[in-house]
Write a structure and sequence with these properties.
heterotrimer; A mainly alpha; B mainly alpha; C mainly alpha; B: mainly alpha; 77% helix; 0% strand; elongated; C: mainly alpha; two-stranded antiparallel ribbon; 24 helices; 72% helix
Chain lengths: 490, 101, 626
């Protein structure tokens, strides 16, 4: 069996078996750790064996529903590699950090399940398979918020779900439509991405198909104005689900733009690029400014994530090799930092029983290690040099200036936006006098340190030696830009 | 001649339908249903007589037999319904509807 | 690939000691303070020695040190190597950055003595030296930008060092945010530069080689944006607001970061890009005027400050303004020379201020620190020498550097700039001696709470000597020198014709005016209570309301906008309309629920209606067919 299939199905199958077997939650945690560690080791092997070329690697293809040309087709290239690695690294670390907090079987089973789903989305090369995994990864999150969330969780999880399913249905319609068009033109059904590329659509058709896909992705990312589910959902979701949503699922939305739209509808993507650059830039600034007045820590982080993901969208649609690489790098960099920050927000809540920024304070005095890591990850979101975010932002800004000087200036505001809220938040949460909520704040425990130190080291390594990581993305990014129409307005 | 039978049948059927819709007493509703059945029977017999085919007669005899057994069922239902709610007002029996708002 | 081990050690020694101190500190084991001191001093001391050796060799043998560490990024044309290169300019920067850092390290061991965050302080401090070296030694502007942002980050951390008081951390936030506004310009400029000529390589040499390929408006834009970066880092109008607030940090920080080294990075950057600024002469002139305005503005504001450190902070802005004036008219090495002497005397003044603050139980208001001459005589002497130096009294070092600037401004046909400079320099004398006379010459006396620490006095003494004699390095011809430093740096200076008679005349007029102001300050403040009678309201005392203005036109609108976006648009407009969509479905459902009332009689009615409609349809169909 192919290594990629193991990566996808080991967690899913384990989760399904665990669902039917009634065993103690501690055993489940151990099984979870074993499975995610195996996945992490496998992806490490994948990373080592990965060749720095632009084509798909480790491909596997089986007939599935041959009558309609639906295949089981998976493979990995430079862009999906980043997401796969992130998923594999984050899942066990998150578990280590949350080890003592969650004693519900469903929590762990759902996390396992969602890991497989995310791997599936990142690796599938057949649109039907892609759609299937896209829906599969939604289900565990729905359950997790519903069962283990906070506040008005039922309403919020329903809203989130209906919102996302609405988008997915639009995508399904688009998928079916292009499959039928392919049948008309080539007399055979297929859902293979590389075959569907040959399809010739009229401009109207391609715009419609593009919109169908884009609605699904825009809701998942989210980009303005599809963002209103975001802050409430992040606020209500339990830590594990928030990490999965912000660090992985949102990134998949951005990744899918590249994987699906840039492959299938290359010309249309070029034509509408400037709208999405505009929407992305607006979102970058809009979410950043919206975050300024938030008093709830997780809501602030949610908007901060949205702001950065808008930047990712800008980087993609600039269609420049620097923009593409920068955005894929930012996807990974932001995944690590935001996962760590949401994890620490969870720890903060567990210790102080509040997410309210104003009632926190003085943590630096009582818990220096916690503050160190918290400040580090917050600053890495801001993109200080020697962290991964800095490299990514420089590349995106460079791509933007290559595209157009005004777009360049607007994109460069990214180095200002995150500061607007991050620094005040750091001051209010970490500094000053200890408040009632933080008087007995416990410093990081050993297992939490074990979870956070690798993340911090990774952020630093990606910031100091970016070339080593970017070498894997570069061939793929170049293959998407070379020989294609290059925009250059001056 | 057929025309007169058919008109009578339509009149009977209409009376039955109107009774079914407008009356609230379940017994009266039952009577209206019987009217409907008999209107159909009448038309069946008239048509079968007209075209000289006996199957219409067979069908109507069948319907009469079933209506008789139905009557027995209805009578027992009346008793059960009356015991449950103490009334035979049709508006009381609306548990099919959406009552949770 | 060249690899110079000395340069590597120079850069990595502070980083290593910072990491070691950090690990010791975070492990929460009890560590003796001596160990921290040893680590911190060995890191900075080693690099200071190497730095002196490198500048020595660079000066006498014109040797170029290069070290190629690794490839940072390599995408298409975008190749960024982490290369260290100590050319004349970098060696010159090392010449004062490294020793001054080392001296202030020694001073800080005394200042921070028995502080509970001793380890943390030296982690930041050594890390700062690392970033500063990176900034100075980088061979290409991207790596320089990494160092540039790095020193800003450390500055942020050190301003908010005493984080128990949240106001200190807000001052740090302000510093970082304002700096980043400058960095926005810097980064944009670098990116534009890359877009224009990046395909030919991005090291300084390559950039200057290809400069002619850029058309003039774009070049001016790049030059302007680069200067925006310098404006932020070197606290010039209108981005100066962070520097006075930055005085919330411990005094060694103010001495090292906010006086001697980091704030001069802007000067270094403009001098580094001298070939570019020589072409973009309109931007250069703009720089000169911004510098002049900042110099004058800060000098005026300083005359109404009472916090000893804030007076010095405004003085720093003012002196940096002088340097930018010189840069703007194209006298790069003159500006650098003033930066060189400034590092010594301003470092000295800050250290003196710190010694006073420590000795008098953390009082900083000069109105509460009166007549302390007898209790701290050594500090008095050193502060006096420092103040005389900054006032440009011959033959102290700043006399040579500042007079060189004045002379060049005079010769450069920008007489307005010259008069601005003259006026600022007179204000400088006034506010410095206002401080000196209030502090040391008064009948009231304040008693010290603590004796001065020796480890604080030695570095001050060395800096005093340096402030007195550093002027010898670039002695003008008129005094028998040969401008050694300028010829060493060999920058693209513009040369101005300037007769010796004029030069002597200028110097004497200047000195006479300074002495007059000195006498006036003595009359006004010494042994008098004038300082207590000064009004604390009015334009000058409120710093021309610039902070309030920023609050009004930037901060408040941003928050209003945040409210508008988050509440009005996201919530009221978008979310409500989406929720109302769901709500309308519910209403529609209620309508149908009304029909589905569970009453079978009604169902029969609907059936009937359906039937009737069906029949009507059939009837019409039949009729049409027939």
């Amino acid at each position: 069996m192919n290594i990629l299939s193991i990566i996808i199905f080991l967690p899913i199958i384990t989760a399904v078996i665990l669902f039917f077997v009634r065993i103690h939650v501690n055993t489940i945690k151990i099984i979870y750790m074993i499975v995610t560690s195996i996945i992490a080791l496998l992806t490490l092997k994948l990373y080592i064996n990965f060749e720095q070329i632009s084509s798909m690697q480790f491909e596997e293809i089986h007939r599935w529903i041959s009558e309609y040309g639906i295949n089981y087709h998976i493979g990995v290239d430079g862009v999906s590699l980043g997401i796969v690695m992130m998923n594999a690294i984050l899942m066990p670390l998150v578990a280590i950090a949350l080890y003592k907090q969650r004693d519900k079987r469903g929590y762990w089973i759902n996390l396992l399940f969602v890991q497989g789903g995310i791997m599936g989305v990142a690796l599938s090369l057949d649109l039907m398979l892609f759609y299937l995994f896209w829906e599969i990864m939604l289900l565990p999150i729905f359950l997790m918020i519903g069962f283990f969330g906070y506040g008005n969780k039922n309403f919020i999880t329903m809203k989130f779900n209906i919102y996302t399913i609405f988008g997915s249905l639009m995508m399904l319609i688009s998928i079916l439509y292009i499959a039928v068009q392919y049948k008309i033109q080539f007399d055979v059904y297929t859902f293979e991405l590389d075959k569907l590329q040959n399809l010739i659509l009229t401009p109207t058709q391609s715009i419609l198909v593009f919109s169908g896909f884009m609605i699904a992705f825009a809701i998942k990312i989210p980009i303005f104005p599809f963002h209103t589910w975001l802050s409430d959902t992040y606020r209500s979701a339990p830590t594990g689900a928030v990490i999965v949503m912000s660090a992985l699922m949102a990134k998949l939305g951005a990744y899918a733009i590249w994987r699906v739209l840039f492959t299938l509808l290359d010309e249309t993507s070029h034509e509408v690029a400037h709208y999405f650059i505009a929407v992305g830039l607006f979102g970058l600034i809009y979410f950043g400014i919206s975050a300024m007045r938030q008093t709830h820590l997780k809501r602030m982080f949610a908007l901060s994530s949205a702001s950065h993901l808008s930047l990712v969208v800008v980087g993609f649609f600039i269609y420049d090799v620097y923009g593409l690489i920068g955005s894929s790098y930012l996807i990974v960099a932001h995944a690590i930092s935001s996962a760590a920050l949401f994890l620490m927000a969870g720890m903060l809540y567990e210790r102080s029983k509040t997410y309210d920024i104003a009632s926190l304070g003085g943590i630096a005095t009582v818990a220096p290690r916690f503050s160190l890591f918290f400040a580090f990850f917050a600053l890495s979101i801001v993109g200080v040099p020697m962290t991964a975010g800095f490299v990514a932002e420089v590349l995106i800004v460079l791509g933007a200036f290559n595209y157009n000087i005004y777009i360049g200036f607007l994109t460069a505001t990214t180095i200002l936006i995150a500061m607007l809220f991050m620094f005040k938040m750091i001051s209010q949460v970490l500094y000053g006098k200890a408040s009632k909520a933080t008087e007995n704040f416990e410093d990081l425990r050993m297992h939490e340190l074990i979870a956070l130190i690798p993340l911090a080291l990774l952020v630093l390594a990606m910031g100091i030696f970016p070339n080593y990581f970017i070498k894997n993305i570069e061939p793929t990014a170049v293959s998407y830009t070379v020989g294609k129409k290059v925009f250059h307005h001056d | 001649m057929l025309k007169a039978y058919m008109i009578l049948s339509i009149i009977l059927f209409s009376i039955g339908v109107i009774g079914l819709i407008s009356r609230r007493n379940i017994i009266v509703i039952y009577m209206s249903i019987e009217l409907l059945l008999n209107a159909v029977n009448l038309s069946l017999i008239a048509i079968s007589g007209d075209i000289g085919n006996a199957s219409g007669h067979v069908m109507s005899l069948m319907i009469i037999a079933i209506a008789a057994s139905e009557a027995a069922l209805f009578m027992s239902l009346f008793v059960v319904l009356f015991r449950k709610k103490g009334s035979l007002d049709a508006n009381i029996f609306d548990i099919l509807g959406n009552k949770d708002d | 690939m060249t690899n110079n081990i000395l340069l590597n050690i120079l850069l990595l020694a502070p980083l290593t000691s910072a990491l070691l101190i950090f690990l010791l500190n975070i492990s929460r084991r009890y560590t003796k303070q001596t160990l921290y001191t040893l680590l911190a001093l060995s890191g900075s001391g080693l690099s200071a020695m190497i730095a002196l050796y490198i500048s020595y060799t660079s000066y006498f043998e014109q040797k170029l040190f290069v070290s190629n560490l690794f490839t940072w990024l390599n995408i298409g044309d975008f190749t960024i190597e982490v290369t260290l290169k100590a050319d004349a300019l970098s060696s010159f920067m090392l010449l004062f950055v490294a020793p001054v850092s080392f001296l202030i390290h020694i001073y800080a061991t005394g200042y921070m003595d028995k502080d509970k965050s001793y380890g943390r302080f030296f982690t930041y401090f050594n890390l700062f030296i690392f970033f500063m070296f990176l900034l100075v030694l980088a061979d290409n502007p991207i790596i320089m930008f990494v160092g540039w942002e790095g020193v800003g980050l450390i500055s942020y951390l050190l301003i908010g060092f005493y984080f128990d008081d949240i106001q200190n951390t807000y001052a740090g936030n302000k510093a970082f945010i304002v700096n980043r506004v400058g960095d926005f310009g810097f980064l944009s400029a670098l990116m534009l530069l890359f877009v224009e000529i990046g395909h030919g390589g991005f090291s300084y040499d390559a950039i200057f080689f290809n400069l002619s390929l850029i058309d003039t408006p774009m070049l001016s834009l790049i030059a302007l944006l680069l200067f925006v970066g310098a404006m932020g880092k070197s606290a010039q109008l209108p981005l100066f607001v962070w520097l006075p607030d930055a005085m919330a940090g411990p005094t060694p920080v103010s001495a090292l970061i906010h006086a001697a080294t980091m704030v001069t990075a802007g000067i270094y950057m403009v001098a580094r890009f001298a070939p570019l600024y020589n072409i973009a002469s309109d931007v250069s002139l703009f720089i000169a005027y911004i510098g002049g305005l900042s110099a004058l503005f800060a000098a005026i504001v300083a005359t109404r400050q009472y916090d000893i450190k804030k007076i010095l902070a405004y003085s720093t802005i003012s002196q940096l303004g002088f340097m930018f004036m010189a840069l703007g008219v194209g006298a790069y090495s003159t500006a650098l020379f003033h930066m060189f002497t400034h590092a010594f005397f301003k470092g000295l003044l800050f250290m003196g201020a710190g010694a006073i603050i420590v000795a008098f139980g953390h009082k900083q208001d000069i109105r509460e620190l009166r007549g302390i001459r007898r209790s701290v005589p050594t500090i008095f002497i050193m502060m006096l020498i420092g103040s005389l130096t900054i006032s440009a009294i011959p033959p102290l070092s700043a006399f040579f550097s500042k007079d060189a600037i004045m002379g060049i401004l005079y010769a450069s046909d920008h007489l307005d700039l010259f008069f601005i400079a003259l006026l600022s320099s007179l204000f400088t004398v006034f506010y410095m001696f206002r401080m000196i006379f209030v502090l040391f010459f008064s009948e009231n006396t304040t008693e010290p709470s603590k004796n001065s620490v020796k480890s604080m006095n030695y570095p001050m003494a060395i800096l005093t000597l340096l402030s007195v004699f550093a002027g010898m390095l670039n002695l003008p011809e008129i005094f028998g020198g040969n401008l050694m430093m300028s010829s060493w740096l060999d920058l693209a200076d513009k040369h101005f014709v300037f007769s010796h008679a004029n030069e002597i005349f200028l110097m004497s007029v200047n000195t006479i005016l300074i002495c007059f102001i000195l006498y006036y300050a003595y009359k006004r403040y010494a042994y008098k209570d004038t300082i207590l009678k000064e009004s604390t309201t009015g334009l000058v005392a409120n710093k021309f309301y610039i902070d309030a203005l920023y609050q009004l036109i930037i901060v408040k609108p941003l928050y209003a906008l945040s409210f508008f976006f988050d509440r009005k648009i996201s919530h009221d407009l978008i979310d409500t309309s989406i929720n109302s969509m769901a709500l309308n479905y519910k209403k529609l459902g209620k309508l149908f629920a009304f029909f589905e009332n569970g009453n079978v009689r009604f169902y029969a009615l609907y059936m009937l209606i359906g039937l009737v409609l069906g029949f009507i349809y059939l009837f019409l169909l039949l009729k049409a067919m027939l």
